Amino acid sequence: MTHKEKSPREKAVVLSSGGLDSTTAMAIAKEEGCEVYSLSFRYGQRHVVELEAAEAVAKALGAKQHLILEMDLSKIGGSALTDDIKVPKSRSHGEIEKEIPVTYVPARNTIFLAYALAWAEVLGASDIFIGVNAVDYSGYPDCRPEYIKAFEHMANLATRASTQGGPSTRIRTPLIHMTKGEIIKRGMALGIDYAITRSCYDPSPAGMACGQCDSCLLRKKGFKDAGVPDPTIYMAKK
């Protein structure tokens, strides 16, 4: 290799919801020099505005490709995000942390990571980034470090590449031990425009955040703790 030649960039699949956490994870992957492949899902969720945000994020952060896969988890239901179940509103932080809420989508991260694993194998990518967080979050079981470790172990038993001497798959969780405030500070240092992200579980048809669901409340708390103005457009309280 001559001094003018550059080493090929490592490829990374980044799961993207268009939200605060996944966008920060993507920015970290980019900072590490990865060639980013953004992966989102139209899975029957009520808040499809997130896909518009994911497109905007992929463009803003220079993803090599943004792939949207389609499935219909509303046929399974069992979540306020995919079924006719009311989204909880105006809960205290203590209430949010108390139990797994009805906004939990059964096995969602397992399903999403499985698709990411398949795409990563085709791309020859060894890293999969996911913006899960186990500090300021809604108590989802598939955001915990032990779950991520177990999935990574399974992934390295499941692919042709990993069983034939190829590179091991790494499930990268750069935000897992960070508070929302710390995540926002990290993202701001990386130049993220959080105004293009969406986090609300129950947005208006125009895409405005409700301001009262668990995700909105955690987002508000994060900006307050970070000492950063919240650029989110919220619906007026009734």
Folded structure, characterized:
The protein is an alpha/beta fold. The protein has one domain (11-226): Rossmann fold. The chain is 37% helix and 11% strand. It is built from 8 helices and 5 strands, in the order βαβαβααβααβαα. It has a 5-stranded parallel beta sheet with strand order 3-2-1-4-5, sandwiched between helices. Helix 1 crosses helix 7. It is globular and about 55 Å long.
Q: What would the keywords be for this entry?
A:
globular; disordered N terminus; 8 helices; alpha/beta; 238 residues; Rossmann fold
Can you list the strand order of the major beta sheet? 3-2-1-4-5
In N-to-C order, the SSE pattern is EHEHEHHEHHEHH
Class based on secondary structure composition and strand pairing? alpha/beta
Shape: globular
Q: Any idea how many domains?
A: 1
Beginning-to-end CA distance, first to last residue: 65 Å
The proportion of strand residues reads 5-15%
CATH architecture: 3-Layer(aba) Sandwich
CATH H level, superfamily name: HUPs
Number of contiguous helices:
8
Low-pLDDT segments: 1-7
